[in-house]
Amino acid sequence: MSKFKKWLVPLIGMALLTTVYTASAFTLRAWKWPAESTTYKIDSTYTNSGTGWNSRLSSAISGWALTGFSYTQNSSSVNVIKAGSHPQCGAGCAAYTSNWITGGTTTKFEIVVNTVSGIAFYDGTQGPSIPSNYYDLGTIMRHELGHALGLCHSAAPNSRLMSTILAVATIKSVDTDATNGENNKYNGQTNTSDGACIP
Length: 199
Fold this sequence. Notes:
By secondary structure, the protein is an alpha/beta fold. The relative contact order is 0.26. It has a single domain, classed as Collagenase (Catalytic Domain) (3-Layer(aba) Sandwich). The strands form 2 sheets. The protein has a 5-stranded mixed β-sheet with strand order 2-1-3-5-4. The N terminus is likely disordered. The chain is 21% helix and 19% strand. It is built from 4 helices and 7 strands, in the order E-H-H-E-E-E-E-E-E-H-H.
């Protein structure tokens, strides 16, 4: 069983870089799911954390579906999305994804949104636009689902979905870099990644 620390979010907002990069920045784990899909179930700890939490998750899953990778809800799935604390997710950590690997194949994932961190999560119910001191839950879930399917962190710039940095009041979609990473991993359709996995 392998567990990997996934995403640290600083408590202070950081300015995103505005330089345009054309090279690929995605990096990949050596393992993947046997098919371009998997199932998941939602724990009540996640559902009960906010009225907009399920819709933010649905939006995140829809974003990955556009790349070809599908997540399907199934109440008997071994893959779980929950909220609470995680022993590997300390101060400033918004969420943590654990992956279980057998013989180079992913067999299970668990995503935990760190609701004990003191981070303010925007779920769409706090106003029509994201408040300046909130982190977008949809972006966090898109990022963590990227780890669940086997993507590592992307190299700079920080504007990429799979970057290690998320600024407050910032919403990121499943971008070209993340799509290229997924397609490279499951279909061999794009250029190779930028080398070793960035943890």
